[in-house]
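Researcher: Re-running this chain for the archive, since the previous output was lost when a drive failed. Same request as before.
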Amino acid sequence: MKLFNYIFFYLFLIISNNSEIFVKSDQCTTTPPILDFIIKDSCGLDSSKLIINQDDFSSLDSITLSPSSSSPSSSSSSLHDQQQQQQQQQQQQQQQLQQQQLRPTYNINNKGFEWNLIDGIEYLLEYGYQGCNIRNTVKSKGMYYEIKTQPLCLYTQFNYTIFNYNSNGDSKEFQSTPSNMKTISNQDNSCTINFFITPISSTKGALQNNIITYNHPTCGFKNGTITINIDQSSSYSNYHLYFKNDTNFENEISTTTTTTTTTTTTITYNNLDSNEYYIFIDSNECGREKIKINLINIYPQINLELNNISNMFYNNSKMIFSYDQLNNNNNLNKSNVVIFYGPQDSKYLKKVQSWENYQDVFYRNFIFGYYYSKDLSMNPDYQSSSSICKSQQFISSSKSLPQINYTIIYDNNNNNNNNNNSNNNTIKSCLNNVLVEINSPYNNDQIILTSITDKLVYQIDSNGRSSIPYNNEFKIESKVGGGKIYFSTIFKKPTYKIVETSNEKGCWKTYNITINNYENYKNLKLTGFRDLLIYPLDGVFINVPANQFTLSYYYGDCISESIINIGNHYYSNYNPLDKVSINYSIIKNPTCLSAAKIGYTINSPLGTFNGTFETDNQYEDFVKVPNSLCYIPLSYSIESIIPNIIDYTIDFNYKIIKIPSCSIQSGLISIQLNDTSFSSNLINKVESNGEILIQDPSSSSSSSNNYFIKHGLNNIKITFKIENKICYSSIKSIIIPMENSINPQIIISPVTDCENPNGKVQILNYQQFTTIELYSSINNNNQLLGSITNSSGFNNLESLNYLLNFKSQICSGSMIINIPSSEDNFKINITMIRNPTCKLKNSDYADGRIGITLNKVSGSNSGGSSINNFIISNFNNDNYYFTNGIYEVATVGLNQLNIKYGYCKWYRNITLGLDDPKISILNVFNRTCGWNNDLYRIVSSNSNVTINKINYVTASDYINYQNQHFISNPFRFPLIYTVEWNNICQDTFTQFYDINNNQYQSQPLNVKYEIVYPNDCLHFKFDIIVSNMNQYKSLLLFGRVPISMNSTHSIFKDVVPSEYYEFTYTSSSGCDGVFNIYKDDLPKTNVNQVLNIKITNDICHSGKGSVQISNIDNDSNYYYYLRSLRLNDNDNIDSGGSGGGGNDGDDSFSLPIFSNNNNNTYLKKLKFGSYSIYRGCKSMINCIIDQKITIGNEDPSIESINVIDSYSDISNNGSIEIKLNFDSSSPIKYEIINSNLTNDNGNFINLSPNSYELKITITDRMCPITLTKKFIINSITKPTVEPQPQPEPQPLQPSTSTILQFNHLLLLIIFFIIII
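Model: Regenerated structure tokens:
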């Protein structure tokens, strides 16, 4: 066995590791012990190791490995922290690291013990063998590096030495500047080493402190400069300039001028072309610096001016090209510069050579630029690309909206409605169509009318009309002008309010959504991400998670949908498991045919949630918390909770094949399984009355097994072993008849002397048998030990299972006999050294350690001495055995162990739990100038864990240097990485958020800018002011150089509107980078004008909001829209039914606004939500005002209280009249507190003088509220009327009217008399 293990061990290491084998031996008295060990040198991602064969390791009395006192301290792995006392901390870390690696781990694959070694360290190996102490020195020959001193600055040039560079152990010198990872191959390229070196300071240096400055050249003119300004008091000296491609630095570039004053020496290199250069300079603070300078071409500015042509759209806008002496390069002018321009999507661009004050029509998405030959005397059209200087940039007007007015005609009575935010209740059915009438400066064939709902395009007739369906969302866009406006024919949209119901983060945030007048809608439901479906309770969606939802509903015979966005469910530094605990319980144990049913309880911020799953081993999955976007990982192992013994009833039948002819003879039965899911090879053992039955070797059927069985009553039980599960059959009672009754009468004596086997089997009635034979049963191979014919038994037996065959004159048979070991003469102590830190699927092994001691009981022959050379193995598999008193591969759960010493053997069961490996990720340093990647270290705070490697990681690089494990440049967070440790364990871990601690300024360096917009749309171009120029050596915008304003500010003047702006820079620390301003980073308004807007909030989500615009332009130079907005993810609530955005968003509209004669526009009936007032310029497409407004929602309030006091002569004639600012369809209760006075109209009469308190209860579901107000009825005196003085009595005289009537009567009488 030992020879086989040696051969296996050496072959494995030689084939897999291709390592050299070293054999060392020391003499000790007269017995020279030989210890074979292997040193496996590091290569690539593998560490150096010292490996000792398991048998040799176990034969030692003791063994220790420690750094030799003469071993130098290596500095090669201590360069990863950027603290002030860095070197001292590094030495401490190195010492801790060395101590940590002195504990061996067992490698189950090659059956050896391993120590991880640090290359460059000499170790002292001390071990005891049979009372002798032996010392050896070991040292690996893996590659490692050393530096004399930490590099001082970011560009400090330093030398480092790679040791063991070849098979002879030679070293090689290298030269470098700091970088975050270096990969060095050895001389024959058979191995690599990966490491990184960081500087002490990233802020010191000639470039960082403006000792070195430079100016970029103009393309084709070779006028770049590099300047060195050395203060007389500084230590800078010994400067040299080379081209970067001069790899041997043989052709130094000469200085052009050197100027010295009393304080400063200035060295200038002139006439430099665009190229990469290296400059060397020495100083005390940084040593020798090797600085790369990249001079890039800059380009003169060509001005593009967009001029306003009034009362038309962009088609007649003009662009004018001009130049400003092209940066004062007089040799570059219109005669040798070619202008090109045109649409971005065009294959052919216009080229113009006579372009001064050139004019042409402006295109919506526009590219323009120029080029010239570096040889100005030559025509650039006939030159190769390398001889051409070319500059270009883009202009885009993607944020502009087309100038389109539309009117929706709902019926034949001209009941028009172009306000998409109001409802037309005259609509009876969505089966009918409506007409939309479109007016615009475009031709009808240049307008596209599309239904967002059904994705159909509707034709527009010659009158600008189109018949479109009800209950759809639409967009109108212009083919020539681009941009989209939106409107809707959904005639009944619900309004709603949203209230947050939690104070959590991310996916744990919840909201209640209350639908107004929900009785008018049917089949209300919310559909969200991953088929999340929520139904309301009395019109309220309860505890809705942060998400984008589709609100579906029926109104009349129409089904409609609206989009609701609520909450922000993404947090970069948020772990959804922070507030979650998971408890598991066993509902049903697993069986051989069915999995276990496990219940889980999740305690979360949203409450407690229960569920079940089934598994027969390990379970990994995600479960979604109900009504939430949160997914919780479930991880469960059956073996970590319950033993692997599983009760299960498996039925079987039997058939008696042979009846024993006597009691000492065994019968034979055939076992037949009723369940076809099981085959006979799954049978682990068959027992009768607790004894294991022996299988008949002649039994060959795959569906049945034949077993020897005793006569009499047999209680049969079958044990099945399927993977890690042990299952039992039902117990059946079988009576085996017998013809005669002759049975060996046996007495078994256990082994009491393990060194001299003394177990016995005595057969009291041996005279009745003609033959008795005893066979050893080892690995199912029976070997005859002896036979007796005239003696009483067998002696000198060890602890084993034996087969006893017997034969008499009338019968024959066999039986299994087990010889135990005495528990009286020996004492076994079991100690849990450490719980395993992992549980492997389908394996009996892990990294747990169980200590076992074996002692002879006091009073024995040896007087109670300790025993060391016993063997420990697994009961189910003895492939891995240990002789040093420690079982090295214990697993989680039940461990069934054999303990064998000499001729003795004992059995023990030990159960272990699971220990957390405590593996985590630490930040080492962040990306900064010179390091493009963040760097993290994988560590374990569990002292029993030794990390071997990272097998998988969602990052670009993994480094293992000197037993430290690093990953860099994560692709994303959450960061996923798989770790292997202790040579046997493996698991995958997740870092949910970036732990970057921002020690350095990250790339890219942000340009702090301010855009100065024009004051009007007549001449549309603007300036960009940069306010952090002191952070840059160079900053260019599309190759243009800014104009300096002061030490921190510069300005780019006359910048045209563009889709984006690209800055290229070199930072003050010498970093090259690119910073972009994208269109979404720019404000929507790009002219220095504002609209005068007065907002009136909505009340109780009733649509009473309004907007008043007092400076609408009435001269037709502009056009206006009221647009609804769907709030972005940074807002907590949606717009309450007014949502929708500009990307074919549902529930959105763009309502044309028209001014009246006094330039004052009043927009009414607006719901709570976010809107924008858009103003477009008819003649300048990019000149936009897009002013966001928010109409809030207010609770109802008391608008007025009219109090009438009571007269003192009447006890109770006071009254009060209350008016609210809100009319509700729900009941409103008016009540005077401490009285019986209530009503529903707010009018109270017959009130006596007193102080009162009014209570108003509003039951509207959208704004349930209680209002109170105190008032006083005063007692006042009724005013009296003063008596008027009476005139003097006058004689009675007829009044004037009486006299007139009398005269009329007299004339009438005279008239009749005359007639008569």
